Amino acid sequence: MGEGAGSDASEGLDRLLTFLKRRLNGDFSVDAFGFDPELTEAVMLPALRPLYRHWFRVEVRGIENIPASGAALVVANHSGTVPVDSLMTQLAVHDEHPTHRHLRALAADLVFQLPVVSDLARKSGSTLACTEDVEKLLGSGELVGVWPEGFKGVGKLYSERYKLQRFGRGGFVSAALRSSAPIVPCSIVGAEEIYPMIANLDFLARLLRLPYVPVTPTFPWLGLLGLVPLPSKWMIEFGKPITTDGYPDGAAEDPMVIFELTDHVRDTIQNTLHRLLEERGGAFG
Predict the structure, then answer these.
(1) Owning domain of residue 128
(2) Closest to 167 in 3D by CA, of 152, 185, 187
(3) Total domain count for the chain?
(4) C-alpha span between 34 and 262 (Å, rounded)
(5) How far apart are CA 143 and CA 104, in angstroms?
(6) Which stretch of DSSP H or E encloses residue 22?
(7) Are 265 and 183 in contact (CB under 8 A)?
(8) Interatomic CA distance for residues 264 and 247, integer angstroms
(9) What averages of pLDDT result for each successive group of 10 residues across the chain (285 residues)?
(10) Crossing angle of helices 171-179/255-280, nearest 10°?
């Protein structure tokens, strides 16, 4: 081992020991939503980087469209059977943006009903996808991420890949309008291929009270090995911000304004997906 490598290892160990000492002494802070930035940067994001850099080989475009500071709402498509896309998007924003911003993800109720997962989600900055929490985060100048397709997007069959599902009722648009926060469309290519869902065991999903129980080419046939995601090539593109501060008072309660803006965001993401798919070529190239 060279002298430089030994020095790097020593510095890494020192940082780890300092981090552990602070944790044991309770010398850290979390915000009102339970977000622990130090734990996120020291443990959670590093655990995801090998997937991001070497397995999915994520290519990020348009990172300059994420504001350097202040409130903004990132709206993305959702897919992949397991919502890995939200994790990769959070890492993309932190690692690729010059100011290393944290994307505060909005998650479904089910996430916060699962042991361990719930605690990790809170500590990494996620919160419940409800209007009250979104408006509080935007009101305090945070960068918020939402995946409006929800489980309809994550749990769709492989035959429906890259076809956007319904974007809910436009609650994310109302929150952005009330906060005068720009909306940044985000298009993610690659997640659809990591766990190609060829069937859904509806009867078992109902029994377990889950949105779906997937069958993929590798799961459940290969057991735990079937949980390893396929190494698809990913592209994440952040589009030009759509401003919301020019709308008149009361726009957040106007169904037509919400419908038109929601449709505009959805169409922007869908059109970008078509373009990215053509540019990427083969899913595993």
Answers:
(1) 31-194+229-280
(2) 152
(3) 1
(4) 30
(5) 6
(6) helix 3-25
(7) yes
(8) 15
(9) 55 66 68 91 94 98 97 96 95 97 93 90 90 91 95 92 88 92 98 96 92 93 93 98 92 92 96 97 91
(10) 110
